[in-house]
Amino acid sequence: MKFSDFALSDQLLDSISYLGFNETTPIQEQSIPEILDGRDLIACAQTGTGKTAAYLLPVLNDLINQKGEGIRVLIIVPTRELAIQIGQQIMGVGYAANITPAVIYGGGDGSDWEQQKQALRSGAAVVVATPGKLLSHMKMGYVNFNNIRHLVLDEADRMLDIGFQDDLLKIVSFVPEKRQTLMFSATMPGNIRSFANKILNQPAEVNIEVSKPAEGVLQAAYLVYETQKTPLIHHLLKDKPEYHSILVFCSTKKKVAELSRALKKEKYQVEAMSSDLEQSERNQVMNRFKARNTRVLVATDVLSRGIDIKDINLVVNYDVPGDAEDYVHRVGRTARADTTGVALTMISPDDMDKFLRIERLIDREVTKLPPPPDLGEGPAWNPGSGKTRSKGNFRSKGRKKKR
Fold first, then answer.
1. Domain assignment of residue 149, yes or no
2. Which domain holds residue 110?
3. Residue at 380 is within a domain
4. Angle at CA 18, nearest 5°, toward 16 and 20?
5. What is the pTM of this model?
């Protein structure tokens, strides 16, 4: 379908056309009519499928057609990066209609607080916020949600994973019961459905299956011990001088700091990204990486979802992600927009079962490699054993190949 097939205002259609978008994605095609009809919605779709526009377009369309005062749209997201990105998308899509959002998140200085306070007090039509910082403003008594028509929870699964359920319920208690509530999530575990039952009213459902990594992604994995991971990163960087944009995911902030320090000692252009950085610092790090002034960015999963970084040559999973679907999000950072890319994962003995679950999700067996000879012998592929076979020749074991 085309966006012009929907009953959207001319202002929105002009903005969409100017931005170069014409054809809808499946999540947009299925969600937009339900939202335009005024129904609550629970939608499951992974990052990169166009879900933000799936709710922004019909919600902004209502703002244009139904004039009003005060805060009328509240969008709650788990991270400041996603809040900033959605704010930018609203500026682009809503430019012709003169819609400027208030973006509320933590990590800034005192001037940021005052700017956010002023935007909330003046009743910006659209507010995009992280839960904790929004609650901080609400406690001061100047936030008025009486006119809200649309409540959107984006990446709801991630917000529940990091412990925001109580905060979300508290925020929702201040929003009018007569409203449209939209919940978007990359996964749909039982706790999401239970939460949805508390805040949604007879919702429509849209479920877009998790897609496999793009065809342009060359996937492979190294079977290594923990002590071999950092030496292997050195080997990969030296072996791939033509790769100018490399993203490395680690499971903890501590590992991010340790790996980035080790790479800096080797004179690589490397920076670290985690929640320890102030927002201004994170923006600067991201801008340098996008401009390719930084070759290697070492990060936690703060960058796995919702961040659009083009032309990444190599994604490395220093640790196997705990959630199989997070693998798809991480790998999706490369080979975007029909380009090609490489995604490598380091599998230690304790992570073999987790990687097997990933293979089942993406419905393919990823090629597994031993570490380079100068790094010593790695473990054999032996998921499900709980033990590691550290001696003998490297060989692949376990599942039969799919036919």
1. yes
2. 3-207
3. no
4. 75
5. 0.66
Structure tokens at 308: 């659009």
Residues of the chain with pLDDT under 50: 335-338, 386-403
**Looking at the domain assignment, is residue 392 inside a domain?**
no
State which of 156, 184, 207 marks the end of a domain.
207
User: What pLDDT digit, counting tens, does each position of 69-118 carry?
Assistant: 999 999 999 988 889 889 999 998 887 778 889 999 987 667 789 999 99
| Domain containing residue 169: CATH number | 3.40.50.300
* The last residue of a domain, from among 152, 185, 207: 207
Q: Is residue 401 part of a domain?
A: no
Based on the fold, state whether residues 191 and 229 are members of the same structural domain.
Answer: no
CA distance 181 to 152: 6
C-alpha to C-alpha distance for 255 and 271, rounded to whole angstroms = 13
Question: What is the rounded CA–CA span in Å between residue 363 and residue 193?
Answer: 26
**Closest residue by Cα to residue 306 from 183, 205, 186:** 186
How many domains does the chain divide into?
2
The pair of three-digit structure tokens given for residue 238, joined into one six-digit string = 């030296």
Give the per-residue pLDDT at 360.
84
pLDDT of residue 302: 66
Q: What is the pLDDT of residue 303?
A: 64
